[in-house]
Design goal:
The structure holds two protein chains of two kinds. By secondary structure, chain A is an alpha/beta fold. Helix content of chain A is 39%, strand content 18%. Chain B contains 24 helices and four strands. A two-stranded antiparallel ribbon of chain B has the order 1-2. In chain B, strands 3-4 form a two-stranded antiparallel sheet. The chains are: A alpha/beta, B mainly alpha.
């Protein structure tokens, strides 16, 4: 059906003629170009869009090309266009490269010689593989691995490859090596640098990756360049810089890509590494935008799909009159290399920053890079459910406290280990659910509210899960739960707990109240904390209050007491804490005693302070890092109980000693 | 076993352990764990011996106080004795202030509350019963109740030098009396008469220390020069205990055999009260007033001041004090007139008993009758005439000084600090008031006649 549509629309369309506003033209139908088209049609469904593509066939998802080459998925899984709903306003011109741009008249000329006017032009021309000038590079048997045609060529040859050499230990090289290893080839990856994927990983993480790659039966040579490609009729081997010879019948060159900028350059746009763009993704011509791998923003060319998508969104918003700006996000790469999840983001290779490294069992490696206590980058190798948190932390440059840093160092998790297990609907609104498309939980909730109740609808609406599909379980989890419960605000508990903490502090800080200076009055205030009768009244009141407060703990353990609402019980418990402190003031006049009495008093005050802090934490649970509430609550309750343990006996002896002496 | 069960068991075990430990403390040696606060200057030396004062489940009874303080109160002719308040006519006063209980005024373990004389009531407590004093005595009309007991006028218990008739008898005395001389000690001379023994004087050859305890020549020489040798007190009289075993160091029990009055004073005062209660000896380091750091670890006994075997009372009277005491009053002594008199007496430039040493005032000589003899002995309880300091006036100051001067001097705290090196700057009005009162009281009598 898709093919049919393109056939129908491929000829000169009359819809672009006449008095209509010219359409928006997108040059390049890779994932980023397609995303830009989808985004336009989503935001302005009546806007005419023409999508030019150089390659034959419908647009496809380049990211999963290696999965196809490995035989994991069939081609339909890569097809990358939406359903028929968009088609009336989207004209696809596949296999139709654009040859030139006439900026004066705002027209382009395509390979068919057809001239097409545009209102706005988006360049998403991507990049092409670099072929280094090595002797023998033109020999048959030398391949690159970049587009569908490359993949098809390798696919055709896959059964007959016995010895494969891959030049370049980057993402594409490793993916190609892995895909063809699946077909039985002996594979050797040759990387000039000291480690695999030097752009995306630090040395240690790369070492983990290398171990993993070796386990797949792929040989790895590091620090070696290829001096010459050997062979006469076809490739027979490569000679390394050190003179060693590696025999091979096929060589894949994956040493990097360079942005495809020839079209832009010939149109007179300013071009550096890529097409220079500002924060609005606009090139030096205000009507021409550049996004994806061909765009150079702030001196940076992004090689991964996620930032490309973000750029697409920004460019479209700008074109449609919005004000979105591209911030040059900390580049995040979340890759599944040969089945090994590898994540890196931000300034993970900064040497002069604090690093927190966690090494778990079986190839787990996690690293956080901090500057002045703020997370500025990170790496994670191996499966991890806490990736979203890491990404959120780096994006927000979150500050990590001493406890959180220690926790990460020891556990490899952000404090609150339950994070991964916490339902998606309870994640904070900014937390990213789909990392490929950068869709946050908040965006998903909004889409859900607008009626997207199935994964497909969510995917159409937000793009989530449209790329790698790794987030589908999370989306299922998200949809399975339905409504979003707001965490309760415990104002009463909060107030009582705050009072308890403050009053406890006051007890320590305030100097003991002095005794009356005159005997001429029969009743003075100091009698409260110096006269036996009053002290007994306040003392036994304290005993009674403490017993009532202890009922909360007994309620948890005795079923008989489970009447009424637990929250109310807890509020009353907290209120008793405040009351107890006031009675303590009356009982002691801030004289904290000596020896046994002092020990007893301090323990009691610590118990109260502990309870106050626990109350504060409970009341403000929603503000804690994802899922850490339970852990913090448990440890505070534990402290509270440990402090409580000796108190009944000490209290008994305190009372006994008063009458004993 | 389930985890909660384990925890409950642990809690139970710990609870039983704590209970046992605290019970043993409460019923045993560690009662002081429960000490609720420091005791006052008078009791801090014995504050860890709770049951000296506290009765189990009975609080602090008057009997406990009387054990140590009864004799003192009797000697001072207590102005507010129990019997006064047991009189039904004074029931309203008793309601205002429970004067039958010592602890009504003398609460302990509340250092913030304790004032002079170990009183825990505010200084104006006299108001409770004597609020109308201004009406009764015109001279008292505008006086602050806080000044009753603080200006050399009244004390609650001891008014031996302050009562009206006494004041009336000593109205216009000179600062320095014409016969300014201390009593002459005569205990040594009268000892044989008092004890009924008639031993011969001993010399060096008579020293009866056993061969297994040889000693040096100096010790023997020192002893032979003392009154001990002259009165027939041999080595074994002190060094052999009642069971007959030889002891290298003779304790206060040995001294007590002859000097029981002196030892009783020592044990009753600040130097010996810990020994009295079978505690380790007092050490200057435990004191609340400034002491010389070097002396901090000295164990106090008789021989701390009366160094064996010379027993030189002149050394004991000043130099011994100075080895430990380091407060301003003590340090100022050697710049005082009293010290100059003491120096003159030591050098033989002045008649005997005209010098004023530390002991002259703080360990004074007291005369009393024994077996029909007038015996003058030293009171070794320095507290017997120190707090309140008006106690010192009648028996000590007035040996040399007039009453008015003595009152003024002891009310002047600056003067006490510089050890009476200048003239009093305070004028206690008691004498004028007494004179005025006596005059106005006599007039109506005359009219009646």
């Amino acid at each position: 059906m898709l093919e049919k549509v393109s056939v129908e629309l491929a000829p000169n369309s009359p819809m672009t003629q006449g008095g209509h506003e010219p359409p928006i033209i997108i040059v390049g139908n890779g994932p980023v170009g397609v995303r830009a088209a989808q985004e336009i049609l989503r935001q302005a469904p009546r806007q005419q869009v023409i999508l030019y593509g150089k390659e034959a066939g419908a647009p496809y998802n380049r990211v999963r090309l290696s999965a196809w080459l490995a035989g994991d998925v069939d081609w339909t899984a890569l097809v990358n266009v939406g359903d028929g709903r968009e088609n009336s306003m989207l004209i696809r011109r596949d296999h139709c490269p654009v040859l030139s741009i006439d900026r004066q008249n705002r027209r382009i000329v395509d390979a068919n010689g057809h001239s097409q006017a545009y209102a706005k032009l988006i360049l998403a021309t991507g990049s092409q593989a670099i072929l280094p000038p090595i002797p023998g590079i033109t020999l048959p048997g030398v391949f690159v691995f970049r587009d569908r045609a490359d993949a098809e060529r390798l696919m055709a040859r896959r059964g007959s490859i016995h010895r494969l050499a891959v030049l370049g230990g980057g993402l594409l090289g490793l993916e190609a090596a892995y895909a063809l290893r699946r077909w039985g080839a002996q594979v050797c990856v040759i990387e000039r640098g000291d480690c695999l994927m030097p752009r995306n990983l630090d040395v240690q993480a790369a070492a983990y990756l290398r171990t993993h790659v070796l386990q797949q039966g792929i040989q790895v040579l590091l620090g070696q360049g290829v001096a010459e490609i050997l062979g006469e009729a076809s490739v027979q081997g490569v000679r390394l810089g050190n003179g060693e010879t590696i025999p091979c019948d096929t060589l894949i060159v994956a040493v990097g890509v360079k942005p495809y900028v020839e079209l832009a350059a010939s149109a007179g746009l300013v071009v550096g590494q890529g097409v220079l763009v500002d924060d609005a993704m606009r090139s030096t011509d205000p009507d021409i935008y550049a996004i994806g791998e061909c765009a150079e923003h702030n001196g940076q060319v992004q090689g991964l799909v996620a930032p490309g998508f973000e750029q697409a969104t920004v460019a479209v918003e700008q074109i449609l009159g919005g004000h979105a700006l591209y911030q040059g996000a900390a580049p995040a790469s979340r890759l599944k290399l040969l089945g090994l999840p590898v994540f890196s983001m931000g300034k993970f290779n900064e040497n002069h920053s604090q690093k927190i490294i966690y090494k778990g069992a079986s190839g787990i490696y996690r690293k956080l890079v901090l500057r002045q206590g703020r997370v500025i980058g990170g790496i994670a190798v191996g499966d991890w459910t806490g990736l979203s948190q890491m990404q959120t932390a780096i994006t927000a440059e979150k500050r990590l406290g001493l406890w959180q840093r220690t926790y990460f160092r020891l556990k490899g998790e952000f404090s609150g280990a339950a994070t991964g297990a916490a339902p998606v609907k309870e994640w904070s609104a900014q937390t990213i659910v789909c990392h490929c498309t950068g869709v946050s939980r908040g965006t998903l909730s909004q889409a859900l509210a607008e009626g997207c109740t199935r994964i497909e609808l969510l995917r159409q609406r937000t793009g989530a899960s449209s790329v790698c599909g790794a987030c589908i379980p999370l989306l299922n989890d998200f949809l399975g739960s339905g409504e979003n419960v707001a965490s309760p605000k415990r104002w009463a508990l909060s107030a009582f707990a705050m009072l308890t903490c403050m009053l406890t502090l006051i007890t320590f800080v305030v100097a003991p109240l002095s005794y009356a200076d005159t005997a001429q009055k029969i009743w003075t205030l100091d009698l409260l904390w110096s006269q036996g009768l009053y002290k007994q009244i306040s003392g036994y009141s304290l005993l009674a209050l403490a017993l009532f407060a202890a009922l909360l703990g007994l309620r948890k353990r005795w079923k008989i007491l489970r009447i009424g609402n637990f929250e109310n019980w807890r509020n009353i418990h907290a209120f008793f804490g405040v009351l107890i402190l006031f009675v303590i003031f009356v009982h002691t006049g801030f004289h904290l005693g000596e020896n046994f009495n002092k020990a007893f008093m301090l323990l009691f005050l610590l118990l109260l302070a502990g309870g106050g802090i626990a109350g504060l934490v409970l009341a403000r649970e929603a503000m804690l890092p994802q899922g850490s509430g339970a852990l913090v609550r448990r440890s505070l309750a534990y402290v509270h109980i440990v402090l409580l343990w000796p108190l009944p006996i000490l209290l008994g002896f305190h009372i006994l000693s008063v009458y004993y002496f | 076993m389930r985890k909660p069960t384990k925890l409950w068991l642990l809690w139970g075990t710990l609870s039983v352990a704590i209970t046992l430990i605290l019970s043993f403390a409460l019923w045993g040696e560690k009662q002081y764990w429960f000490l609720p606060g420091k005791a006052s200057h008078g009791h801090h030396q014995i504050e860890r011996e709770c049951e000296l004062c506290h009765t189990r489940f009975g609080g602090v009874k008057n009997d406990a106080c009387q054990k140590c303080h009864a004799a003192e109160l009797k000697a001072a002719d207590d102005s507010h004795p129990e019997k006064k308040f047991k009189d039904p006519r004074n029931a309203d006063r008793l309601a205002a202030l429970d004067a039958l209980q010592c602890i009504t005024c003398h609460q302990e373990h509340k250092p913030e509350k304790i004032r002079n004389m170990g009183v825990s009531l505010p200084d104006d407590f006299c108001y409770r019963c004597h609020a109308d004093i201004g009406k009764e005595r015109k001279t008292h009309r505008d006086l602050d109740f806080k000044s009753c007991a603080s200006a050399g006028c009244h004390n609650y218990h001891d008014n031996t030098a302050l009562y009206e008739n006494f004041l009336g008898k000593h109205l216009h005395e000179a600062n320095l009396l014409p016969q300014a001389v201390n009593l002459e000690r005569n205990f040594g001379r009268l000892y044989l008469a008092l004890s009924g023994k008639k031993p011969a004087a001993l010399s060096r050859q008579n020293a009866d220390h056993p061969a297994s305890f040889p000693t040096d020549v100096k010790t023997i020489q020192d002893w032979s020069a003392t009154a001990h040798a002259k009165q027939g007190v041999n080595c074994s009289d002190c060094h052999r205990n009642r069971q007959g075993t030889w002891r290298k160091k003779a304790g206060y029990e040995a001294c007590k055999r002859c000097h029981d009055q002196q030892v009783a004073g020592f044990l009753g005062g600040m130097h010996g009260m810990r020994l009295q209660q079978n505690l380790s000896p007092m050490q200057p380091g435990l004191a609340q007033i400034p002491m010389k750091p070097k002396a901090a670890k000295h164990n106090l006994s008789c021989s701390s001041c009366h160094t064996a075997h010379r027993f030189d009372t002149r050394h004991a009277a000043v130099d011994a004090c100075m080895t430990c005491h380091n407060d301003t009053h003590s340090r100022a002594y050697q710049r005082s007139k009293h010290y100059r008199l003491w120096q003159s007496e030591l050098r033989g430039l002045a008649p005997a008993n005209t010098g004023v040493s530390c002991a002259t005032c703080h360990l004074p000589r007291e005369a009393h009758q024994a077996k029909g003899l007038n015996v003058v002995q030293v009171q070794h309880n320095q507290n017997a005439n120190l707090r309140p300091n008006e106690k010192m006036i009648r028996g000590i100051c007035m040996q040399c000084h007039g009453l008015g001067f003595s009152l003024d001097a002891l009310a002047d705290t600056a003067l006490i600090k510089n050890n009476f090196s200048s003239k009093p700057n305070i004028r206690v009005k008691s004498l004028e008031m007494t004179e005025h009162h006596l005059k106005t009281r006599r007039k109506p009598r005359k009219e009646k006649m």
